[in-house]
């Protein structure tokens, strides 16, 4: 169901920043320039702003943001008490912005995602879509390793029944209505890319070009990437648990068959040169058991974290000035 809209919506750009001192000032310039242009053409309202979420940076990022917000009320800053991770930083920003915005667009601080795609995002919103996903045209700027692992990951996610949009990485527009719905989800293991498509609002895709990171290094360490990937799988699919049962069943059936064969051999008085067979069976079965325990452990860990109901992020302070 879509409702065509024709007013200029109030936009809040949510920008998560973690140790981005090298680029943040430039980013602020590029983004505010874009917002001013959109305001001038009446595409968005004059109340639109940029909300930086400082995700517990330990460099100069916050001081730079503080100065920027002092100079221009278009810049707001939400400072988190510690490093809560990209997904939580985005959530913190969206939840802070939702009551003052008609639409929120989340974008990384490193200018890799093409800000010019905003026009198309807003066009789609005006056509009546509640969520618009930014999908990258190609992955040329990524190394071979990241590209291959990403492709394999999306294939795996789909095989496991998740609705993630391939090559979409949290550059998206989301309407206030959809944000209100998102606020009702209280799960601790947050994987927005999987969660948002399950809400079921009218959504569309906009393609954009990815650029090289202009300054600073990627803040996504291998460890953070693996955690995100694991969260994606275990917070959306219980299929691995089913697969374990199936694998266990197959191993048991094979074991029974081996027993029968062994017994028949024994009755026929054959010498069983069973050492190798035994070894193989033992290795395979203990391996399977350990793996299965590991997967079950992953889920138990998730349940453990969920039962604690810990907050996603802790807010240290918010700088949010009236725009005159
Ligand atoms: N980021 C964050 N918290 C973190 C890690 C990253 O807020 O713990 C932000 C980071 O500042 C950037 C965005 O998330 O704005 C994406 O990170 P990055 O560009 O390093 O990831 P990549 O593009 O390499 O996947
Ligand atoms: Mg980046």
Descriptive notes:
The mean pLDDT is 89. This protein has 2 domains: 11-236 and 311-319, Spore Coat Polysaccharide Biosynthesis Protein SpsA, Chain A (Alpha-Beta Complex), CATH 3.90.550; 239-308. Helices cover 48% and strands 15% of the residues. It has an 8-stranded mixed sheet with strand order 7-5-6-4-1-2-3-8, sandwiched between helices. With 324 residues, the protein is α/β, with parallel strands linked by helices. Helix 2 links the parallel strand 2 (49-54) and strand 3 (75-80). It is elongated. The longest helix has 34 residues, at 275-308. Magnesium ion is lined by residues 108, 110, 112, 213, 218.
Within CATH, the superfamily of the largest domain carries the name Spore Coat Polysaccharide Biosynthesis Protein SpsA, Chain A
Tell me what portion of residues adopts beta-strand conformation: 5-15%
Mean pLDDT: 89
Strand line-up in the sheet with most strands: 7-5-6-4-1-2-3-8
CATH architecture of the largest domain: Alpha-Beta Complex
Task: Compute the number of helices.
Answer: 10
Which shape, going by the Cα principal axes? elongated
Looking at CATH, which topology of the largest domain would you report? Spore Coat Polysaccharide Biosynthesis Protein SpsA, Chain A
């Amino acid at each position: 169901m879509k409702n065509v809209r024709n007013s200029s919506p109030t936009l809040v750009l949510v920008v998560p920043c973690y140790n981005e001192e090298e680029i943040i000032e430039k980013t602020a310039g590029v983004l505010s320039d874009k917002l001013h242009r959109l305001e001038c053409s009446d595409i968005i309202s004059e109340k639109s702003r940029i909300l930086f979420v400082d995700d517990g940076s330990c460099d100069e990022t916050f001081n730079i943001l503080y100065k920027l917000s002092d100079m221009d009320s278009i810049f707001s800053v939400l400072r988190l008490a510690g490093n809560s991770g990209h997904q939580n930083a985005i959530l913190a920003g969206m939840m802070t912005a939702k009551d003052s915005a008609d639409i929120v667009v989340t974008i990384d601080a490193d200018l890799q995602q093409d800000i010019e795609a905003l026009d198309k995002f807003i066009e789609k919103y005006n056509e009546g879509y509640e969520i618009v996903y930014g999908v990258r045209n190609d992955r040329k700027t990524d190394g071979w390793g990241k590209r291959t692992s990403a492709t394999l990951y999306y294939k795996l996610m789909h095989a496991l029944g998740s609705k993630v949009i391939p090559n979409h990485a949290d550059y998206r527009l989301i309407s206030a209505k959809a944000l209100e719905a998102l606020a009702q989800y209280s799960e601790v293991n947050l994987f927005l890319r999987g969660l948002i498509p399950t809400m079921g609002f009218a959504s569309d895709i906009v393609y954009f070009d990815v650029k090289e990171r202009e300054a600073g290094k990627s803040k996504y360490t291998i460890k953070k990437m693996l955690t995100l990937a694991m969260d994606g799988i275990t917070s959306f699919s219980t299929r691995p648990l089913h697969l374990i049962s199936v694998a266990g069943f197959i191993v048991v059936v094979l074991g029974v068959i081996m027993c029968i064969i062994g017994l028949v051999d024994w009755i026929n008085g054959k010498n069983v040169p069973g050492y190798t067979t035994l070894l193989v069976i033992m290795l395979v079965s203990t391996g399977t058991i350990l793996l299965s325990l590991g997967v079950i452990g992953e889920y138990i860990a998730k349940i453990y974290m969920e039962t604690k109901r810990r907050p996603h992020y802790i807010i240290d302070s918010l700088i949010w000035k009236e725009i005159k």
